[in-house]
Amino acid sequence: MSSHFGEVFPPPAFDPERYAARRRRVFKQLGDDVMILYNPPEAHRTHDLYYRYRPDSDVYYLTGFEEPDAILVLAGGPSPRLAMFVRPRDPEREAWDGARAGVEGAQAIYGADEAFPIDAFDARIGAYLETAQTLYFKFGRDEHLNQRIIGAFRAAARRRHRQGPAPSIIRDTLPLLGKLRLVKDADELQRMRCAADIAAEAHLRAMEATRPGWYEFQVEAELEYVFRKRGALGSSYTSIVGGGPNATVLHYNANNGLLRDGDLLLIDAGAEYGYYASDITRAFPIGKRFTPAQRDIYALVLEAQKSAIEAVQPGARFDEYHQVALETLIEGLRDLKLLSGSLDEIKEKKTYMRFYMHRAGHWLGSDVHDACAYFTNETENGSFLYEKLRPGCVVTVEPGLYFAPGLKGVPKRYAGIGVRIEDDVLVTRAGNEILTAAVPKAIDEIEAIRRAALSNGVSADERPAV
Fold first, then answer.
1. Catalytic pick among 402, 414, 424, 447
2. Choosing from 4, 93, 158, 251, which is the catalytic residue?
């Protein structure tokens, strides 16, 4: 999909067959076993107010169901079935909080073979466990539900000697669902393209709008404006908008610092569209141009990113593009006299971690750090092998360098510089496709945008349509 900045993406249409097809794939893997998934209750913000709700990614992937406080039971066997335990209809609460699907809607809309009120779960779960050997469940945020699941598992085990098979193993859902979610289908890729397009416009708007003397939260507001205006659910994670030394803090998100001419601004922000994420990082001068030291560091990170993207190829191991980025950064830091020793020595001793302390990317999908396994069951020289990249996978490619103030042995000209460059990259049969390529990252392009923004005083709202 080509980029059409300004286009509004309405919510994607609900297609029950899409989710039913995914469940059929799960049932093939499940055999006679049982999987339990859940949408947690709403989270309190203050007193009787709640945060905007976001469903569990696995629940949404298999049903499209968005309501809180729901439990899904996928029971395998000769006649596999989906049971949904949901909040019943309640006209009084619906007047305040909105319509509920209820037990009837769980079957008529979301394809449940059986549906019950959420309060019936404890009484009914035992029947689903009677013939299963393995229970798949992800222990997580809801400790009360964790204990209920353990109680049901133990009760089934006590019945085993009288009634035959019952679960004797609890396994995490990640290996099974993660493998299915790793390769995106056409609907998922369409949503991710929309999320990338929205986030790309937001980053360009921020690059054009930023002014010395602004606060970081003003730039964040420019991002959020585009996200919601274009149809995103909002940000796919808390945006990082760090000026100067704040850019050297990897997960900085206070976003309340003053922006000063002469510093760099690092923005790590993505949009979530249809419960699928984008994830983009750019760094640019708050003034009109990079300083010589900023230019040296930025050029090195950009070289590492471009080399790493070239290494994102079908059949390559997930770790390969990280190694390409790492070795490029190490060689560049040696040339700048910021590291000493051979490449192998620096890698073995990890002395580069003073300036580069994270990997070059991660899986991307419904979760920003998508819930897919990074390692296979294969081993080589005693170590597990990384998953192979395959067509339909999406990864981020995001090398960076960070020079926090006060680092010993670092020339003053580098102090406070933080640069990370991140794009979302789809693995294709022929190689790869950069989904976020619409955001400029070449030094001359960025400086041209910044000169134009600060020379003519044109605001982002007055920018000509692209």
1. 402
2. 251
CATH-assigned architecture of domain 183-462: Alpha-Beta Complex (3.90)
Q: Is the entire prediction scored with pTM above 0.70?
A: yes
Q: Is 420 known to be catalytic? A: yes
Q: Is 161 a catalytic residue?
A: no
Domain ranges of the chain: 16-177, 183-462
Which of 24, 158, 369, 390 is flagged as catalytic?
A: 369
Choice among 87, 181, 203, 362 that is catalytic: 362
Whether 450 and 288 have beta carbons less than 8 Å apart is answered as yes
Known catalytic residue at 303: no
Look at residue 464 in the predicted model and tell me its pLDDT. Answer: 39
> Quick check: is 48 catalytic?
yes
CA distances from 29 to 25, 80, 91, 286, 435 (A): 7, 11, 40, 52, 31
Enumerate residues 6+ apart whose C-beta is below 8 A from 158.
Answer: none
Residue 160 is predicted with a pLDDT of 64
For this structure, is 172 an active site residue? Answer: no
CATH no. of 16-177: 3.40.350.10
Do domains 16-177 and 183-462 share one topology? The answer is no
Out of 87, 100, 205, 420, the active site residue is 420
Q: Distance between CA atoms of 110 and 136, rounded to whole angstroms?
A: 21
Catalytic residue among 197, 422, 424, 447: 422
Is 44 an annotated catalytic residue?
no
**370 classed as catalytic:** no
Which residue numbers in the chain have pLDDT < 50?
Answer: 1-2, 458-466
Beta bridge pairs of residue 84: 72, 115
